[in-house]
Each structure stands twice: as structure tokens, then as C-alpha cells.
Design goal:
The protein is mainly α. The protein folds into 3 domains: 1-41, no CATH class; 43-98, 434 Repressor (Amino-terminal Domain) (Orthogonal Bundle), CATH 1.10.260; 109-178. The chain is built from 9 helices and 4 strands, in the order ααβαααβαβααβα. The chain has helices at residues 12-16, 22-38, 47-58, 63-70, 74-82, 90-98, 113-124, 129-135, 154-170, and strands at residues 43-45, 87-89, 109-111, 151-153. The protein has a two-stranded antiparallel sheet. Helix 3 (47-58) packs across helix 5 and helix 4 crosses helix 5 (74-82). The radius of gyration is 25 Å and the shape is elongated. The N and C termini lie far apart (68 Å).
Length: 179
């Protein structure tokens, strides 16, 4: 049987894909021996990961965002969260548990309170909203204060935080204004 020359030889995956070279056979045999000796040596109970996903969900990090932050597929994360997958690989568990409630993707929405506070403090210190909009790369005026929306994207919040730091470093605004 022909095999893919780029395949990782010596692994269970390449043996199961059809490669019958000696290295792949030995890798498969080692896996089988470990499985027989320890019973599921590479998997663990998914309960802790499931609880963590539910905690993330309670903090506004949904299924797709958690999957992207963990570097996993959405269906894998969904199956863990719903309980369909009772046992998972240890690497999958570690990836899920590595996601914290502070992790955010740029496009995620967060309550606009912090962004509004930054804009208000800078405006009170003499920075015009149009100038602040230009600093963060928006055309026209900054609409964080005038819109009825309750959320801003994480990207906008980060841009405002960076702009505030730049204004403090340049000496235009004192550091106490942002405290």
C-alpha cells in the first residue's frame, strides 16, 4: 500500500491510515500495549472541562468563541459542553481549561461601561471626541456616548485603552485622570 511521504511515521494515526512500515507498526503496538495495561491512558473524564465551559458561558464566552480561543473545533466543544462526549483527550481538556474568563476575541461584544468611562474621562481632561476617534482610526466622531447600543467590541475597547495610554505617555493627560 502506498503511503503519504509527508505522514508522521511511527504513530498510531499513520498506521490506521494504512501505512504498514515497521515504525508505524511499533507505534501502534506501543499504543495498544499502553491501552491494555492502563485502560484509556490518553483520555480523561470530561466533567471538569464541561463545568469550565459552563462557567465561560456564564461570563459571556459562547461555544464558538471558546472553541476558537482553545484552538478546537466547535463541534468538539459542543459535544463536551452538552455531555455527549463523556471522555476526552487530555490535550483537549488542557486546551479548554487554558481559556480564562478574561480571554476575548476582537469581535466579541462587551458592555460599553468601561469604554464609556475612558471616553468621558479623556473628554473631561480636554480631549475632543473627534480627536480621540482619529487616534483610534475612526472617521468622524466617536459614537460610544451617543449610541443606544449597550455593547462595544473588544477591538474598540482595546483601541480606546491604547489611545488613553498614548495620551498619558505624551503628557497630554495625567495618569490620575484614568485611575
Amino acid at each position: 500500500m502506498t503511503t503519504d511521504p509527508a505522514a508522521d511515521h511511527g504513530t498510531v494515526r499513520s498506521y490506521r491510515a494504512g501505512c504498514r512500515c515497521w515504525d508505524c507498526y511499533e507505534g501502534y503496538r506501543a499504543y495498544q500495549n499502553a491501552f491494555e495495561r492502563h485502560g484509556r491512558p490518553f483520555t480523561t473524564d470530561a466533567a471538569e472541562a464541561r463545568e469550565h465551559l459552563l462557567t465561560l458561558q456564564a461570563h459571556g464566552i459562547g461555544l464558538k468563541s471558546a472553541a476558537a480561543l482553545a484552538g478546537l473545533g466547535p463541534s468538539c466543544v459542543r459535544d463536551v459542553r452538552t455531555g455527549k462526549q463523556r471522555r476526552i483527550r487530555k490535550s483537549t481538556e488542557q486546551a479548554i481549561l487554558a481559556v480564562t474568563t478574561d480571554d476575548r476575541l476582537d469581535g466579541m461584544r462587551v458592555p460599553k461601561g468601561e469604554a464609556l468611562a475612558i471616553v468621558d474621562r479623556l473628554h473631561a481632561a480636554g480631549v475632543e471626541k473627534s480627536e480621540l476617534a482619529a487616534i483610534i482610526g475612526l472617521e468622524g466622531e466617536l459614537h460610544v456616548t451617543t449610541t443606544r447600543r449597550k455593547y462595544v467590541t473588544v477591538r474598540t475597547l482595546r483601541k480606546l485603552q491604547v489611545a488613553a495610554e498614548l495620551l498619558v505617555r505624551s503628557g497630554r493627560v495625567s495618569a490620575e485622570v484614568l485611575s
